[in-house]
Amino acid sequence: MKDATPRPTLERVSTPSLPALRAYSSAMRTSSTVQAISLLDQAIALDTAFASAHRLRAVVLRHVGRPAAAHDAIEQAYRYRERLPEPERLLVEATYYGIHLQTESLETALLRLLALDPLHARGLANLSDVRLGQRRFAEAESLAMLALEIQSQGVIAYWNALEAQLAEGRDSAAERLLVRAPSRVQREIAVYVWMA
């Protein structure tokens, strides 16, 4: 029986501009990176201090191989982070530290975020990534699987769980997980594997 605990369905972000929030929300739902960047640009044009939009823009730009633009975007997010509630600020800080390869600070920000919200799917997925880098595979898998229970579409969480299972020699578990992944996730993972 599945846990009946209510799960957050909306991203908790701060902006005084409803149109900016709508553009951000649309960017979160689209599967097109080009469209996501355009929508985030709209959100930022409507609220230049919309730190979460800058943060997400940095993540998307990094994903599409534009590290300089991602760096600029996360600098803006970090600049405006103080106007955010603590969980949102910690996510901005974690992304900033991740892009700047400051693993210890990244881990600290993620642990603080998860202390506030133990079911924060992005926080869990990103801490899973840190644990993979530390070769703590069982913990990485556990964090990724919990993130997937909360937010079943998380490509990073699927990737981290698969990587942890493969590192532990649990190929059949990884195969079962990949088969049950949504087709969008399977396509993205296939692209990662092809590029590797």
Explain the layout of strands and helices.
Layout: H1 18-29, H2 33-46, H3 51-63, H4 67-79, H5 86-99, H6 103-116, H7 121-133, H8 137-150, H9 155-167, H10 171-180, H11 183-195
Helix pairs in contact: 1-2, 2-3, 3-4, 3-5, 4-5, 5-6, 6-7, 7-8, 7-9, 8-9, 9-10
Largest beta-sheet details: none
- The tally of helices reads 11
Distance between the termini: 38 Å
Tally the beta strands: 0
Radius of gyration over alpha carbons?
Answer: 17 Å
**Mean pLDDT reading:** 89
Are there runs of 5+ residues with pLDDT below 50, and where? 1-10
- Derived from helix and strand composition plus strand pairing, the structural class reads mainly alpha
Helical percent range? over 70%
What percentage of the residues does DSSP assign to strands (E)? under 5%
Q: What is the N-to-C succession of helices and strands? A: HHHHHHHHHHH
